[in-house]
Every structure is written in structure tokens, then in C-alpha cells.
Amino acid sequence: MKKLLLVAVLAVMGISANAQELRFGPKAGYSMSTLKYKDNSGSASTDPLHTFYVGGLVEYKISDKFGVQGEILYSQLGGKITESVEDEDGFFKIQNKMTFGTLMVPVSAKYFITEGLSVSAGASFGYILSAKSKTVGDLGLGGIVPGLEIGGSDESDIKDQTNKLNIAPFVGAEYMLENGLFFDARYNMGISNLAKDPMDGEKTTNSFLQIGVGFKFGGN
Which SUPFAM superfamilies match (predicted)? Predict the structure, then answer.
């Protein structure tokens, strides 16, 4: 009986110790996303799309120096292209914006330089829930009729033309205060081809920078 009680006490102590290494909480922040197009004739990148992300995380600290982290995030990713021509008679500007509503599951290994400062490496596995392309045209006739502008927009659903999986390896860093508040930054390099039916070596990838803030519950 005494042996059984001792085993039970040690098991409870082990569970408590493990629980102290588990942290979880919300996070949100800023995303800067770009698309890169490549085919047999060359490559080009879009202007950045500035959006946000929101979600939550679970972190398990294996030792004083190493840990693992999993997250679930949602973000609007993509990129935009703007072309404009201006002369003494007026201007013409057209902008195309591609937006991918993406549910992401980032998984990373972490190394703790100090108790609060860590670096990480891993991969984000994204599933594209929606894909849209919006083109806006603006014809300014300021030189002919001051103040008069002719404009229009066109939005189309391109989900059927887009692969749903967006895998992006990443590296990042995080600093956490003693109260659980943390700040992090991460660069994700897209490697998946988002073009569903590529021709002539066509490849479209999505890379993005994330800067965020969050709070972790649990731990010591």
C-alpha cells in the first residue's frame, strides 16, 4: 500500500511539473505579404499587401533551452500590383489586388537564449479558404475637366484556379515578459505553387512577414 501511495505521489508530482512547462494563449498582429510570379520568361514580385492575423498558440517547454510550439492563425494574405501613367492631360491608374483568406497551422522548434528570449524555426501549413482578385481602374481627366474622375472596379472569385495548400518554412524570434506578455516577429518563405493549372513553368508563391503580440497563460 505504501509503495502504491508513493507511486501515486510521484505521478502527481510529474504531472504538475509537466503542467508548469505548458503555456497557451491568444496572439494577433500585422502581416506584410507578397506574391512572386515565375515562368520560363522570368520572374516578378508584387507590392506588399498590409493586413493582420489573429489566433492562438500552445507552447511546451521540453527543457530550460528547448521547446515546441503549435498555433492556429487566420490571415488575409496575397499581394497587389499598381500601374499608373501621368502627363499634363491627366492620369490613368489601375491596381490589381489578390487576397487569400488563409487558415494557418504553424509548428516550430524553439531555442531559449534566456528565459524570456527565444528563437524558432519551423513551417506554416496554410489552407486557403477564399481567393479573390480585385481590379480597380481610375481615369483622371484633371487637365481637361478639373476634378472629374472616371473609375470602376471588378472583383472575381479565383478559388477554382488556386491550389489550397500553402506551405511556408519560417524563422523567428520572441521576447516574453515575466507576466506572460510577449512580442514576436517571423518571416515565412512560401514554397508551394498556388497556380492550380501552371503553364510554361508558371509558379506563384506567397511569402509574408508577421509581427505580433500575445499573452501566455500557464507555466511557473
Answer: OMPA-like (SSF56925)
